[in-house]
Amino acid sequence: MNLNQIFTSQRTGNNPNTTASRTDFQRDFDRIIFSSAFRRLQNKTQVFPLPGSVFVHNRLTHSLEVSSVGRSLGSVIGEFIAENFKSDLTEDSKNFYNHNLGNVIAAACLCHDVGNPAFGHSGEDAIASYFDKNENDLKFKFLEKEWADLVNFEGNANAIRVLAHQQQGKDFGGAQLTFTTLASIAKYPCEAVAKKKGIVHRKKFGFFQNEKETFLEIAKGVNLIQENDEPYIFKRHPFVWLVEAADDICYNIIDMEDAHRLGIISNSDCENLFLDLIESENQDIKKVKDKLVAISNDNERVSYLRAKVINALINKSIESFKTNFNTILEGNLDKGLLDIYRDGNKALQEIEKYSIAKIYNHKAVVEIENAGYNVMYELLDHFIPSVLKPKDERKSYDKMALKLLPQQFIYEEGSDYQKTLGVIDFVSGMTDNYATDLYRKIKGIDIGMTM
């Protein structure tokens, strides 16, 4: 890929560039911060149930921290590119890599989770499972590729839709972000029918059929390497690796800190795992341990070690990106930056094993996943059958159900696929509390007038 041609200030909605004190990529960051989709992340589960008496991360605080890490990664790599490839770069490109790559990665990290439904990954599973379990009643209503979108639903593809789709009555181009920022969150730049386990850029899929033309414009605008056109498959954009690394660094480490605060894991286990990782990087472990002696508060000790670990992982990700830079540009890297490091580092492997055993399979986490799955499944079951019925065949209960759908999610003149996506937009955009509250009301568990 040509380093001068993998970024652009072109936006969805085809809005002309404006002269302002902020760059186009800083404007992306600000637009995301002020968007309702981003604000709703404050009440979407990261791992642990919300709310609680002990503060833990939600999707919004997670995204802010990922953005902070991503800005660091982007700034350092931007300087690396500007310095080591300056003879290949135009003046505009030098300016971009020196001053704006950090903004792009920060903005992309900020919105990388906006397509995720309530209740974490169980919300995604519920949406996909709803269509899978109702295949006999629903599949015939959709084209093959449309059906693949539904039975493989997941948040990465939905993020592109949330950010780029024009809802009923709203402005063209969605959030109107630059193609550069949008390409940077496309971890799986292919159609759903092309997803394939074991291939890093095809593990899942990156866009719905409804947003296919928009994604093709994005791919053209940033010159993604095309692997296939039926179905469409592209190689990852080079910036994706930095966004992914920032996300991997944060959830691998911060979930441990949250579990410690909740008393799910012991102070000694958490400290020892973090210390082992710090020591594996040949950091001055004596200096770190001496610092710990001066800190008596357990939470503060873990916070200090967490900061040291994140810094170490940022440095390793930068090193890995530089080492594999040509392979990344060619679109041939087959493993995430943190995965490459994990393969050769037993300390990080132990953190992952411990997290799976003690955190992700903890009773409280499993309970919220089960509850969330059922809530999301039942909400879809309340709306999908009614929205897919022809208008003249709808019974009174169908009409009553559809009165609960906000106007921007209703596509009466659209295809069955578009009507279904409208319902998914509504349900997947809900916060944990709103989804639970609506579920209890439509099931008759809570009856009474509330606003």
UniProtKB/TrEMBL annotation:
Keywords: Hydrolase. InterPro entries: dGTP_triP_hydro_central_sf, dGTP_triphosphohydrolase_C, dGTPase, dGTPase-like, HD/PDEase_dom, PHydrolase_assoc_dom. CDD domains: HDc (cd00077). Pfam families: HD_assoc. One of its GO terms (biological process) is dGTP catabolic process. GO terms for molecular function: dGTPase activity. Residues 1-22 are annotated as: Disordered. Residues 55-261 form the HD/PDEase domain. It comes from the Bacteria. The keyword Coiled coil does not apply. NCBIfam families: dGTP_triPase. This is DNTP triphosphohydrolase.
